[in-house]
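User: quick one - fold this with adenosine monophosphate bound?
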Amino acid sequence: MTNTVTSFSTLGLAPELLRALTESGYTTPTPIQAQAIPVALSGADLMAGAQTGTGKTAAFSLPILQKLLPLSNNSTSPAKHSIRALILTPTRELAIQVEESVKTYAKHTMLRSLVVFGGVDIKTQTPSLKAGVEVLVATPGRLLDHVEQKTLQLNQVQMLILDEADRMLDMGFMPDLKRILALLPKQRQNLMFSATFSNEIKKLADDFLTKPQLIEVARSNATNDNVTQKVYSVEQSDKEVFLTQLLHEENAKQVIIFTKTKLAASRLSRSLTRAGIAADAIHGDKTQQERIKALDAFKAGTVTALVATDVAARGLDISELPMVINYEIPTAPEDYVHRIGRTGRAGALGIAISLVCKEEEKYLAEIEKLIKRQINKEVAVVEKPIRRARGTSYGDKTAEDNMPRRAPAKRMSDDPWFYKPYEPSGMSASTIKPLPQTALQKKKPVAALLGGLFK
Ligand code: AMP
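Assistant: Sure. C-alpha cells for the protein plus adenosine monophosphate:
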C-alpha cells in the first residue's frame, strides 16, 4: 500500500487531537501513521512492522485517544477513569517516552494517562493510579507488581498495545505477557508493533492477535536510507584511542556509543571523560534516577557522548540525534538495525559508524546479510599517543590503559624524561603507522592525544 494520505484531518481525527498535532509541528502523517491509524480506528487487530523513528508511537496513540474520547470526563471519581488502554513496552525509558507522547497528543482532551515502571518506589505510583487513568503505559514486571498489590484493575481494558514486541521477547517477557493477557477482558482490540518480524514474533502474533491486519512500512530489518553507514576496521586494543580521535575529529556534539556489556559501557564512559569528552553511561545497573539524569544531560547537550547498552538505549527518542557509534557491534544482527535507528529519525540525516575488529567480522557479515547491503569500509588510522616511558609497549596494555591521558602533575615531577623537549626522531616505525589519504588524516592532529601535554 502506498501512502496517499497527506493530512491528519483526512484520517478522521478529532479537532482536539488535530490541534495537539499542529502544536507539535506535525503536518503530514508518516507512512506508518497513514496506514495504521485507519486500521486501528476500525477496531481490527493490527500487526505493524515499523522500525524505530517512523512515528509509530503516534500511530497507535492517536487511535487510542480518538476511540476513548467519548469516555473522557472531568469527574473526580476514580470509577469514572478506568484503565481502557494498556500500552506495554520493554524498557522504562521507552515507557516514559511513550507516555510523554500520549500526554502531548491528549493535552486538549480530558483523558488521563500514566506511566508505571520498575526501579522506583512502587508507592509513589499508587496515588495517581488510584485516582484513575484511561491510558496506562507500563513495563510488564511493574504492572504485575501493581496487580499483586491490587493498586489497579485491568478488567475494563479495551485496547492492548505491545510496543517493540520483538524486544519484549528478547528480554524474556513472554511469561509476564502471558500472565497479563490472562487478566484482560477477552473482548478487546490488540495492536502489536515490532521493528523486526522474526518467526517468534509471527508466533506471538498468532497466539495473541485475532485476524490481524498486517502493515509493514519498510522492508522488515531494513535500515533507514537517511543514515550514512560506515565501518572502520580497527584492532580491539586500538578502539578507545580511535574512538576518542574520531569524536574529536568529527567534532561530535551528540553521539550515542553502544557497547555490548554494562561493564564496558561504564569503563568507556570513564575513559572518555578522562580524555576530555563529556560522557556518561546508561545501562541496566544504573538506578532510574541516574538514567533519567544522564538522558536529560544528553538531551540538554551537557553530555556529548552517551555510552549505552542495547537494552538501555532501546526506544530512546532523541530528536535529530546526528550520530551513533557501535563501539562493539552486536552479535544479534537485529540489534544493529535498532541501534542505528536512533539516528536519522523522522527524516533527519544521521551517521552510523561501527568499529569492527577481526573477531567481529563474522557478526558484520550477518548484519550485511540482514540489511541486504554492503557497508562502506575503511581501515582505521590510529594516531597513537607517543608514550616512551617505562618500556611497556602500547599494544600490550588493556583497552582502558590505552586511553590517552593528560599527564598528572605529580608524575611529571618524578621522571626527568617528562621535562625533555618533544623529539619526533624517537618515534619508531612500528609505533607510528604512516597516515594514508583519509578524511581523518587531513584534519588537525589533536595535541592532547598525541602526547603534546607531556612536552
Ligand atoms: P517514534 O517512531 O514514534 O519514536 O517517533 C519518532 C519521532 O518522530 C518523534 O520525535 C516524533 O515526535 C516524531 N514524529 C512522529 N510523527 C510525526 C509526524 N507526523 N511529523 C513529524 N514528526 C513526527
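One thing worth noting: The longest strand covers residues 227-233.
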